[in-house]
């Protein structure tokens, strides 16, 4: 009995120790993670265990993968953003150029009408200020302008046809004189070499007779297209002179509402630049034609008046036109009057062009249409490659107008005070400029 009592006492002592140990473990919590909560009935079977064992202490840390955008360098991201925008812009320009090339005749006729309108619009405004009705003022100005242009063209053709026989004889004599000069020159040119060159030239013309005939037929097509373009330009000029305000208002409706104020303010300035360019170029070209024509007349060069008219017309192609017209005048003087006269003509042409470039253009055109010479050369080259002579003529005024518009829009986005526009004076676009004049109540409210 004593042994049985001792065994029961030992078992009780062990049970008490185990109960105390269990209470200590329950008070300390589980070894990993927060204490578990009793899951609802059946949840453990459906969802699995509620805790995940922590990794062992010796396991290495695995860093998280970075965002792909942050992994690309900043410069590359900027280049990519600019690149796809440039691609979209280049595609838009390419499509626009394709559309323009398909209707090149219409575009050139309308641009020519804009240039003529910029030249004649001040006359319409002057007649309107004198009380002449708009329709009558437009008709008088347009008819007078077209008659003057037609008379100039007729005068050139008449002078050429009237002097063609004399010019042919002078050219023949000039070729003989040039031949004698080459024989006596230090270049050691023989008569046989000159005859061989003349024979090769004659054979070349004879072998290319078919191409020359085809070029003549193409010339007829060009004449028809030119007449069509002239008629389109005349009608466009007439309607722009009469309804220029309505045309500008309709154009503004095509512009998005958010950009409309800026475009409405840039339009008058662009028109002022175009008007200043056309009027200044006409005046400079007239001065060049008069003085070079007088030099040709006093040097007894045949067809001095037609050459002066050609100099006037080619002056509308900056830089390149002056070189071509001056070279033509020197060539005519060379084959008709000899080397000395050609050198004197070259001196006259260079002197007048130097006065034009350093005195006339800065004084007459001023700062409104000042374009860097590099931009002028590139614009004339691009315009000539794109649309021939017409593209070369309209390239520089287009660059000047674009420069004015971009400068204004840049200032408009930076300085709201530049919204004010001077009172319109004789320009079609100025009559509908919605921007108020400086100092007006509207301008103060808008500012």
Automatic annotation (TrEMBL):
Residue ranges, compositional bias (Basic and acidic residues): 13-27
Annotated region described as Disordered, given as residue ranges: 1-60, 422-447
Membrane topology note: Multi-pass membrane protein
The keyword Heme appears for this protein: no
InterPro entries: AI-2E-like
Signal peptide segment: none
Transmembrane segments: 82-100, 106-127, 139-161, 220-241, 276-298, 304-324, 331-355, 375-401
GO biological process annotation, one example: transmembrane transport
One Pfam family from the record: AI-2E_transport
Main subcellular localisation: membrane
Protein name from the UniProt record: AI-2E family transporter
